[in-house]
TrEMBL record:
PANTHER family: PHOSPHORIBOSYLFORMYLGLYCINAMIDINE SYNTHASE SUBUNIT PURS
An annotated GO cellular component: cytoplasm
Record's protein name: Phosphoribosylformylglycinamidine synthase subunit PurS
General function of this protein: Part of the phosphoribosylformylglycinamidine synthase complex involved in the purines biosynthetic pathway. Catalyzes the ATP-dependent conversion of formylglycinamide ribonucleotide (FGAR) and glutamine to yield formylglycinamidine ribonucleotide (FGAM) and glutamate. The FGAM synthase complex is composed of three subunits. PurQ produces an ammonia molecule by converting glutamine to glutamate. PurL transfers the ammonia molecule to FGAR to form FGAM in an ATP-dependent manner.
Biological processes per GO annotation: 'de novo' IMP biosynthetic process
């Protein structure tokens, strides 16, 4: 069994209030080295058998058509989760 990860992030021009709230909280909690935060989504898709190029292409298509809102989000990464392999 394999696992594919699809990472989705807001487009750069879209405001990210959750990321802004986290960025404001980090210095108060002792993490002053971080200057900004963008919050996104991670999807883990399990497949029977190995993760092939075709599986990765299908995961990217699913990310672009179903898992993300293409008006405000980008699929920024699609890759095999090596930990599950």
């Amino acid at each position: 069994m394999g696992r594919v990860v699809v990472d989705v992030m807001p487009k750069p021009e879209i405001l990210d209030p959750q990321g802004k709230a986290v960025a404001g909280a980090l210095p108060r909690l002792g993490f002053a080295q971080f200057t900004s935060v963008r919050q996104g989504k991670r999807f883990e898709l399990e497949v029977e058998g190995p993760v092939t190029d075709e599986v990765l292409a299908a995961a990217r298509a699913a990310g672009e058509q179903v898992l993300s809102n293409p008006v405000i989000e980008d699929v920024v990464a699609v890759y095999e989760d090596e930990v599950s392999a």
